[in-house]
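For practice. Supply one:
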Amino acid sequence: MKQWFRWRLNRLRCMTLAEVLHRGVRMLSMHAERAGLLGSEVVLSPDLMPAPRPWVHATARVDAALYLAAADRIAEGRLDLFALSDIDVGSTPRWNRDPKTGVEAPLTYGKLLDYRDPKRVGDIKYLWELNRHLHLVTLAQAYALSGDARYFRVIRRHLESWFDACPYRMGPNWSSSLELGIRLINWSVAWQLLGGAASPLFLDGEGARFRRQWLEGVFRHAQFIRGHLSSHSSANNHLIGEAAALYLAALAWPCWPHARRWLADGAAILEREGLLQNAPDGVNREQAVSYQQFDLDLLLLALLAGKANGKKFSAALESRIEAMIEYLASIMDAGGHVPMFGDSDDAVVVRLAQSGEHCSYRSLLATGALLFCRGDFKAKTSALDDKTRWLFGEGADAAFQELDPAGAKLPVRRAFPDGGYYILGCDFETQDEIRLVADAGSLGYQKIAAHGHADALSFTLSVGGTEFLIDPGTYAYHTQSQWRQYFRGTAGHTCLRVDGMDQSRSGGSFMWIGKARAACTRWRSSGESDLFEGWHDGYLRLPDPVLHRRRIVLEKRTRRVVIEDTLEMSGVHEVELFFHCSDRCRVDPAEEGYMLGQSSRTLVMKLPSAPSAASHVYLGSIAPISGWVSRRFDDKQPAPTIAWKARLAGNTVLRSEIMC
């Protein structure tokens, strides 16, 4: 109860008066809905005459065997959910049960259910992931490729059982509008691949009855989302997902007069939020690369669906989407690795590819290459992927082949001043590449900065397309609070920490109540060297304030990286430096520092010299928590972390060097 009260108080502190009033009115309306006084409109009979044009193409040229095998596993009741591989969810899953913990969530009014309470709902991420219905798309793909109606029968069985188990507005699957939105988008894709309203699958009596039931579910989902859009400090990627769902639902099912409102509202929100939530230089303002991918998926689906049906977004939004892909192309190293800045929950909007080698970031580059006729995006991704084939149809391979990557200048950009990221490097896209990505961006988006990490002035380093210094990822969300705090905290990044405190103050798992400001003061690139200088004020809140400045220089001829950390302070402080190495790295002691080895390449790191300084390499440590990487949600592996510590007094400059 004490923790719950503290979270509520912190959340209130992050709200404006207007938001407090808005949420008060919303709470009253939700209680009225629960009592049946609001939101009980009759579902209108659909008009099935309009025939929308599909934006996912059943004629995609892919290896059918991959999709049939995946669909057969699903038909047997076996799924992969985050860290759970090949679990048995049954022929009809228990939709309100967390498959990880076995906790069955209650069928109370969804919007008033505390989904943050693991005692009531288990790990809500696992429960929601199953209910996003990503697997229904795989079954629909298998039907489109084989014509075998048994895959449709599995879809029908799953949806019929879902409608029975999850009545309108009741339970955990009616608690988050974003979750309804992702489910609705997956329904729209599956619907198209099954042939739409005129599909022969719906011609007999059972098929027609199921079609009516499904369409009723569509109507209720879209109306619910429209009535419960995320707003104020919660209007982040959730709002873009909800708007995309309304827009895509209107295009897939123009069966009711309401669809015109869904279309108009969805388009207006996507236009506004697509520009608000993504900076002009293409960096997503949540400061989380995974959410950049998630937002791009939503925006690209809406853009392609609109184009297929004669709808257009503004040139400004299309340009912003292109800039977002440019950012991903620029931070991706020669080996295809992308820094894991900020939160990640492995979210995908629709799972259209089945290859184990599928990379969502490379896929976005391939889609961007075709959409914007960008030979440089093609050069970066090198090959077309199945997801892009499903989105562009049977002509995708020929169109991709025609793009000319000759003369492509990579990386596309080096400085992203709006987002706060800067790329130092040389010999790009070769086996000798050095690529260092420095972070001087804000903590995150809106007042709560929900998905940001306390990582100001951190950096990642890869050499020859091989990761050496990394961002360790996320691991946990709603559960395992100690791990959640570590992976989003300052010690969980290649940062400097003062007095054992994070740069920013946490108010909850998705809330920061004291946010460090950061900025780049100097950026320069020449043939001889690259230079980055930045600062953050996170430790000015201490009784003896500390201002941290970091200067990074890459000397290209000698392949040396010099990091200078300047501390402006008066008193004595405990200062720590953390260097997070890839889980594939070997770390061995060396004179004045360590050697970082991987394959046939070795980097030499020299640490600062200071009285009483000591260093230690953590690998999978529990006390203290240190030396971990999480490359997928709810999964962590030991990875070497070099920790340097000293007690320092007065203004100090700490110099570290890395020979690449």
Summary: The mean pLDDT is 95.
